[in-house]
Amino acid sequence: MSINLDAANKSIGPLVHNYTWRDVIIYALGVGAGSEELQYVYEKNLKVIPTFSVATIIEFLFAAAKEANVNLSGILHGGQELIFHRPIPVSGTFTTTGSVAHVYDKKDKGAVIIAPCNTHHDSGGHLFTAVFTIFSRFDGNFGGEDVSMGKITIPDREEDFTVNSMPSPDQPLLYRLSGDYFALHVDPEFARNSGFEKPIMHGLCTLGYACRALMGVFVPGMPEKVRRIKCRFTRPLYPGNPIETLIWKTGEGQALWQCRNRNTGEIIIDGGEFEYDVRT
Predict the structure, then answer these.
(1) Would the CA dihedral through 189, 192, 197, 202 be positive or negative?
(2) Dihedrals phi, psi of 18, to nearest 5 degrees
(3) Residue 110 pLDDT > 60, yes or no?
(4) How far, in Å, CA of 212 to CA of 37, rounded?
(5) Which of 70-84, 164-178, 215-229, 258-272 has the lowest mean pLDDT?
(6) pTM (2 decimals)?
(7) With 90 as the cut, is the pLDDT of residue 49 above it?
(8) Beta-carbon neighbour count of residue 186 at 10 Å?
(9) How far is CA 95 from CA 19, 26, 276, in A?
(10) How many CB atoms lie within 10 A of CB 92?
(11) What backbone torsions phi and psi does residue 28 show, to the nearest 5 degrees?
(12) Which listed site, 156, 158, 172, 269, has its alpha carbon 20 to 30 Å from 23?
């Protein structure tokens, strides 16, 4: 298998996805919401956790990976950026179009694919922009361009807020019902063949926990105020391990954040950025 450098700037989509209030609730349960956040899990006055957006269009990640012709057994979700242009309705149809923008050669470490896309709602509105970073561990050294991905420096001081979360050992089994059926998160044999001792948490599931934590600190009960969230997935997390979301407020409507495995102290999500509307 050889990576397809011609994938860069080739259009992907439109990808169409219909969803209902049930999908919104299943997603919220999949990222740990419960009776203390009733607005996300009960159809009465239901609101949408913003990261539902990327879970619902996860097909785009696999379409981009397929377009780049990478070895699927070696792919990991390397990073994610989401920019929200308006609140997400509780039901409707998403239409997503995008492309593979760049394919980078990280030599012995693998390959990195950058794939941005835009999603519109059937009401006619442009809802959000997503930028996927796909890391393919088995596809480096193809003679392509390398580039520094850039890193966000977390403040050298104690965090302003810490939010603790406890995913279930079975969390990926529930989260996958939102559309990411990749075998790495459910099949023990596939996980072992991919270099892990057992199935791992979806990175986007952990991102959902972090989004809930950030909203709880800055915009409780008001997901419509979230404007942007971005992060790098740095280490795998096995289901059932506790998560700490560490948050530093850096300005009006701005914060940086990390997620840490509370059992091991390892940073599992780094370089987190969060922006929210401070207007009343």
Answers:
(1) negative
(2) -90, 140
(3) yes
(4) 9
(5) 70-84
(6) 0.92
(7) yes
(8) 15
(9) 11, 21, 25
(10) 15
(11) -60, -45
(12) 269
Q: Identify which of 179, 221, 276 has the alpha carbon closest to the alpha carbon of residue 47.
A: 221
Question: How is residue 203 written in tokens?
Answer: 């990175």
pLDDT tens digit sequence for 137-175: 666 556 566 666 667 888 889 999 999 999 999 999 999
User: Contact 43/21 with Cβ under 8 angstroms?
Assistant: yes
**SS3 letters for 162-197?**
EEEECCCCCHHHHHHHHCCCCHHHCCHHHHHHCCCC
Query: What share of the chain in percent tops pLDDT 90?
Result: 75
Q: What is the pLDDT, as a whole number, of residue 143? A: 58
118 to each of 52, 60, 130, 248, how far by Cα in Å? 15, 10, 6, 29
**Separation CA 100–CA 115 (nearest Å):** 4
C-alpha 137/C-alpha 121 separation (Å) is 34
State the virtual CA torsion across 181, 187, 193, 194 in degrees, nearest 10: 40
Q: What tokens does 21 get?
A: 């209030």
For 40-102, give the DSSP string.
HHSSTT----TTHHHHHTTHHHHHHHHHTT--GGGEEEEEEEEEESSPPPSSEEEEEEEEB-E
Are 73 and 200 a contacting pair, CB within 8 Å? Answer: no
Q: Torsion angle, CA of 24/27/32/35, rounded to 10 degrees?
A: 30
Structure confidence at residue 145 (pLDDT): 65
How far, in Å, CA of 191 to CA of 179, rounded? 19
Phi, psi of 72 (to 5 degrees): -65, -25
